[in-house]
Amino acid sequence: MDDRTFRNAMGKFATGVTVITSSLNGQVRGMTANAFMSVSLNPKLVLISVGEKAKMNSVIQQTGKFAVNILSDQQQALSMLFAGQLKEERNVEFAWMDGHPILPDSLANILCDVDISYIAGDHTLYVGKVTDIYMKEGDPLLFFAGKYCTVAGLANGG
Asked: Which residues of the chain have pLDDT under 70?
């Protein structure tokens, strides 16, 4: 099978949208990702997948820390910005929680220390030990079949 067929098949799995954030030498980095999952309740572990060539990969390797920001349906522009889909320069305001840069107004901010990492193909899988969580109410930003969508949009057929 070719790469496009594989990507199209993976796109049939609806996911939430996250921005992974970390900071190195005072420089905050962010990366949009939908490759995120919970792994364990005891201990509390989550997993993210970061491309080997992504700048974020080097930052997480050096710091051993990251935050997962689960985006609300009001944060599509942030997702697009950190995915490199918006080319204009934008000033992003970060909040800081326990030394982690986070995106305010996200549905959840999950602070993690890297527990272990694995190279898998062209990505590194980081298992993060959750050190703290901040949450708020709202609806999630979703991604399905290569497009952003919302719970309301899916309920209405698109």
From this structure: 153-158
Query: What is the distance between the alpha carbons of residues 47 and 49, in angstroms, rounded to a whole number?
Result: 7
| Nearest alpha-carbon partner for 20 in 97, 91, 79 | 79
pTM equals: 0.92
Chain segment 77-102, per-residue pLDDT in tens: 999 999 988 877 788 999 999 999 99
Domains of the chain are 3-155 (2.30.110.10)
Side-by-side strand order, sheet with 141-144: 15-16, 141-144, 147-150
Residues whose CB falls within 8 Å of the CB of residue 74, separated by 6 or more in sequence, listed in order: 105, 138, 141
